[in-house]
Structure formats: structure tokens, C-alpha cells
């Protein structure tokens, strides 16, 4: 999360000229994957920063080396694999730093600057702290997995990843064959009680600062989050699972679509006037969903009347329903049956309108039925804010098992393809993740 990083200062020098950093990450707002050095502005440092691109740089009173790919990395829904292999002993300058994204070496840069031959970097140095998820400011917001540093060897991306023979997707090698050297490490983040544990065999363990949470969202099972590319105003944080909203036109969609199958997810309310449901991907990111086509949701303004919008046409508020008033701390349950085009909504584990998400074609108690995409794109999760009179925070759990940085209080029945929820996932439903989608 944005205030979290892990740090270690080596007890002795390793190889400061030759090393490899490899990490899988899924970006929220971005930030630093890795930093080594004196982290105040102007002091010597190595940094890898994720924004619209992934920038590698070494700074010591000026840029010693800087590589900014022309390739952009804006996709908040995907896991990326980034590798930088450094060998300053090379005679050819472009061989001193090699960058790989998703298995392919990057050869096109908007900025391309290399250090002098035999330059000693701050990595693997006992004089400088080594940080994952930080460089002394600009902490990384998102998820990270399979983080490696090697001391003394420059490896290519194929050492740490490979192409899946069935899907053709670049995937991690969970036990790569590498020599870690003196100060190398392998962070699996598999021990929730000691997230800085080194699994390389070196015992180069890190100290955790902030609230580092273990997540089931991984490169092998990618979970839905809020879409940071296409929100309509508002602010996203906590790996794009928290939406802070202050106006009736603030809304956001999920990153994964639902064309077939059955899916369950949850929102936790901090404030009133929420809008919770689904929308058509091609119509998301518009002002005032209550007056625009392509949005299907339940709205409540803090009293016991719920308003159901079924916007096949603009402003087509379809019905009112008596519900418990939205309240801070309430969890909204959503179940979308894409096979039968039905949306069920509940509060704190009780389905409204005596809904039964497992009822199939009978659609018992569904708040919205005949939910067909009419305007292009697939159906995706939707969260909005229905007033400009107050601010609110909405936290999504698409199966990651957390609301913000707080784990669910007591997990309910889990779906078969992964996911952790506060309440029982209905039978036959999955979390909105790649394994869940592929199961249908």
C-alpha cells in the first residue's frame, strides 16, 4: 500500500557493478518498485519508478544513468514483469543496462543514458539501504510478487519467466535457477506474519514499515480492481480498491468484464449516498449515472427507500424498494448472473427483495433482470456517489480478502477458484478473477 515498504542494509559489500532486479507488479497509482542509496533529493541513489512508463535511473548530483522506455505501462488491470540487468564492466555502453518488460528486451527509449564503464552503483553496498516498494518517498501503490535481486550476475528475463504453452501468456518461474550471491534475495511474501522473509537461502530478511498485506491477487490469478485508467473524477488508492468520492458525478468501473458465468463481490461503505451495481464498459466514466444510459444499480440517500436504476434509456428509474438505510461500515453484497442476465444486491449478508442468486432462470428476487449490454462492451462492476452534499469512501473486495488494509472479519464460504469474502459466496459463483472467468 502507499505508506508501506520494506528495507534492508547489507552488512558487507557485494558486487556493486553487476546485479539483476526482477519483480512482478500490478500498479495502482504507481510509485517506486525499488530504491538503493541516500534517499533525499540530490543524494546518490538507484531508483525504479512506475508511472505511465517504468523508469530506471541512477542519480549522484546529476543523472549517471537513465532509461525511460517509449513503451507505456498504463494498464491497471494487468500484472507486469520488469527486469533490469546491470553490468557496468561491459565495454559497450548499451550493454551496461538491459531492461525487459514482460519477457521482451526494451530497445526503444525516450531517454537513454548509460553510466561510465566500471561504475560502482549503490546496489549491494553496505553503505546504502536497499528498499523494495520505496526510494525514501513515493512509496509503491499496488501489488508485488516474486521479487528477486541477484548479486554478481546479470540475467535476462527468461531466467525468471516463461511463456505458457497453452495460453501464450508470460508467467513467472516460481523457482528460477539463479545464483543470488552475497546480498541477493528472493521475496515470495508467503509468510503473512513475516512478509520481509528472504527465500533465497541467504537469510537476507527485510524489515517491514507500514501495513504490508498479503494478497491472493497474483500473476497466476489476476483479480478485478477499480479501473484507474477510466474513473470519472474521484481518487483511487490502496491498489485501486478504494474510491474516495465527493460529488454526484463521481463513479468508477471494474477492470474485468462478465460476459458469461456468475460472479460475487462486496463493497464496504464509509458514508451514505452510494450507487452499487454494474455498468456497460463502453458507457462507464460518464457524469451522473442516474441520468445516463448503460448503468444498472441500487442507490440510497440515507433513508429506508432504495432506488433501482435500470438505465436502458436515460433516467429510467425503474422502481423503489424498502431497504435498511445505508450506514457507515455496512457491506453491500453483489451477485451478477451473466448467464441469466440478473443482478442481486444484499446488505450485510442478507439479499434484498428475498433474492436468491442460485435460482437460475427463475431469477427469484433479482433487483434488475434482462440486463443485456445495449451500447457496446461487456458488463463490469460499478460504484458511484449520488450527491455533492457529502464525501464518502467506498472500498471494494473482489476476492482479495481486504477492505482497505483490514482483512475481512470472518471469511465466509469461498469460491472454488480463489477469493476471500466477508460473507458466503453463493453456490456456483466465482470471484471476478481470471481463474474464475476461465471456469465457466
CATH class of the largest domain equals Mainly Beta
Helix content: under 10%
Which overall shape is indicated by the principal axes computed on the Cα atoms?
Answer: elongated
How many distinct domains?
2
* Low-pLDDT runs: none
Radius of gyration: 24 Å
- For the terminal residues, how far apart are their CA atoms? 32 Å
- Structural class per helix/strand content? mainly beta
Topology:
Elements: E1 5-8, E2 18-37, E3 45-50, E4 54-59, E5 63-69, E6 80-87, E7 97-101, E8 104-105, E9 109-113, E10 130-132, E11 141-151, E12 161-163, E13 170-172, E14 185-187, E15 207-209, E16 235-237, E17 242-245, E18 251-253, E19 262-270, E20 274-280, E21 295-300, E22 305-310, E23 317-322, E24 331-337, E25 342-347, E26 350-351, E27 379-385, E28 392-397, E29 402-403, E30 406-407, H1 434-438
Antiparallel strand pairs: 1-10, 1-15, 2-3, 2-6, 2-10, 2-11, 3-4, 4-5, 5-9, 6-7, 7-8, 11-14, 12-13, 16-17, 17-28, 18-27, 19-24, 19-28, 20-21, 20-27, 21-22, 22-23, 24-25, 25-26, 29-30
Amino acid at each position: 500500500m502507499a505508506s508501506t515498504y520494506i528495507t534492508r542494509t547489507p552488512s558487507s559489500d557485494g558486487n556493486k557493478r553487476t546485479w539483476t532486479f526482477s519483480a512482478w507488479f500490478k500498479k495502482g497509482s504507481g510509485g517506486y518498485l525499488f530504491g538503493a542509496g541516500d534517499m533525499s533529493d540530490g543524494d546518490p541513489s538507484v531508483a525504479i519508478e512506475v508511472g505511465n512508463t517504468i523508469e530506471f535511473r541512477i542519480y549522484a548530483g546529476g543523472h549517471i544513468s537513465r532509461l525511460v522506455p517509449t513503451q507505456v505501462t498504463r494498464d491497471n488491470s494487468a500484472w507486469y514483469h520488469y527486469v533490469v540487468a546491470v553490468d557496468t564492466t561491459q565495454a559497450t555502453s548499451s550493454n551496461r543496462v538491459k531492461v525487459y518488460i514482460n519477457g521482451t528486451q526494451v530497445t526503444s527509449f525516450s531517454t537513454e543514458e548509460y553510466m561510465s564503464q566500471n561504475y560502482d552503483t549503490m546496489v549491494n553496498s553496505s553503505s546504502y539501504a536497499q528498499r523494495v516498494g520505496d526510494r525514501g518517498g513515493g512509496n509503491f501503490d499496488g501489488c508485488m510478487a516474486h521479487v528477486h535481486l541477484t548479486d554478481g550476475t546479470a540475467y535476462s528475463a527468461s531466467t525468471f519467466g516463461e511463456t505458457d504453452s497453452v495460453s501464450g501468456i508470460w508467467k513467472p518461474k516460481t523457482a528460477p535457477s539463479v545464483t543470488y550471491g552475497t546480498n541477493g534475495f528472493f521475496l515470495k511474501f508467503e509468510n503473512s506474519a513475516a512478509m520481509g522473509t528472504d527465500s533465497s537461502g541467504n537469510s537476507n530478511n527485510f524489515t517491514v514499515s507500514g501495513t504490508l498485506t498479503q494478497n491472493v491477487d497474483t500473476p497466476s490469478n489476476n483479480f478485478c480492481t477499480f479501473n484507474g485508467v477510466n474513473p470519472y473524477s474521484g481518487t483511487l488508492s490502496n491498489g485501486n480498491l478504494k474510491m474516495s468520492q465527493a460529488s454526484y458525478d463521481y463513479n468508477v468501473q471494474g477492470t474485468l468484464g462478465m460476459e458469461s458465468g456468475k460472479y460475487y463481490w462486496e463493497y464496504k461503505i464509509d458514508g451514505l449516498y452510494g450507487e452499487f451495481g454494474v455498468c456497460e464498459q463502453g458507457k462507464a466514466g460518464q457524469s451522473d449515472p442516474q441520468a445516463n444510459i448503460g448503468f444498472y444499480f441500487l442507490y440510497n440517500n440515507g433513508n429506508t427507500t432504495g432506488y433501482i436504476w435500470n438505465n436502458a434509456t436515460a433516467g429510467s428509474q425503474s422502481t423503489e424498494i424498502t431497504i435498511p438505510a445505508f450506514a457507515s461500515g455496512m457491506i453491500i453484497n453483489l451477485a451478477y448472473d451473466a448467464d441469466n442476465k440478473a443482478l442481486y444486491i444484499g446488505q450485510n449478508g442478507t439479499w434484498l427483495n428475498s433474492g436468491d442468486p442460485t435460482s437460475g432462470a427463475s431469477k427469484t428476487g433479482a433487483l434488475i433482470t434482462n440486463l443485456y449490454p445495449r451500447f457496446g462492451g461487456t458488463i463490469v462492476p460499478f460504484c458511484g456517489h449520488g450527491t455533492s452534499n457529502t464525501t464518502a469512501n467506498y472500498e471494494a473486495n473482489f476476492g482479495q480478502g481486504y477492505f482497505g488494509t483490514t482483512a475481512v472479519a470472518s471469511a465466509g464460504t469461498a469460491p472454488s477458484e480463489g477469493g476471500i469474502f466477508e460473507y458466503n459466496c453463493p453456490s456456483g459463483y466465482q470471484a471476478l478473477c481470471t481463474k474464475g472467468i476461465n471456469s465457466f
